[in-house]
Design a protein that fits this description.
Strand content: 25-35%
Strand order of the largest sheet: 1-7-6-2-5-4-3
Shape: globular
Number of helices: 4
Number of strands: 7
Helix content: 10-25%
Structural class: alpha/beta
């Protein structure tokens, strides 16, 4: 599946399209270079689910929990700053991944061996014209 985001003006439409096509998956691993727009796109998805919390990258806390409009939890991870895989074990990552709630992961390549088999890999690529292509 491929979604093109021409500009930030169209990110909400792209998030809606992503949600329609995400299927029954619960764990989504977002790959992309620094500045590709992973956090921005996850924020748009969360907003589309009715999250009213402040949505920021959990760079230092590793995980943020948001509440969707239906009362369910959405977990947003950022593994960029982990130094040892033990940090991920210590946070109880399995409890989150197995919770049945949506989990959006940034920098999943740093915990590749811990990803569930059914995790959906999402790649965001910056195009020469500044647009983004989201593939999953």
């Amino acid at each position: 599946m491929k979604i093109t985001i021409d500009s930030l003006d169209h990110i909400q439409q792209a998030a809606q399209e992503f949600i329609k096509k995400m299927g029954n998956g619960k764990v989504f691993a977002f790959y992309g270079k620094m500045g590709a727009g992973k956090t921005t796109f996850i924020k748009a998805i969360c907003e589309a689910f009715g999250v009213e919390d402040v949505i920021t990258s959990p760079t230092f806390s590793l995980v943020n929990e948001y509440t969707a409009s239906d009362g369910s939890s959405i977990y947003h991870f950022d593994f960029y700053r982990i130094k040892k895989i033990e940090e991920v074990y210590d946070m109880g990552y399995e409890d989150y991944f197995d919770s049945g709630n949506l989990c959006f992961l940034e920098w999943p390549e740093l915990i590749e061996d811990l990803l569930p088999e059914d995790a959906t890999k999402v790649t965001i690529t910056v195009q020469d014209d500044g647009s983004r292509v989201v593939e999953f």
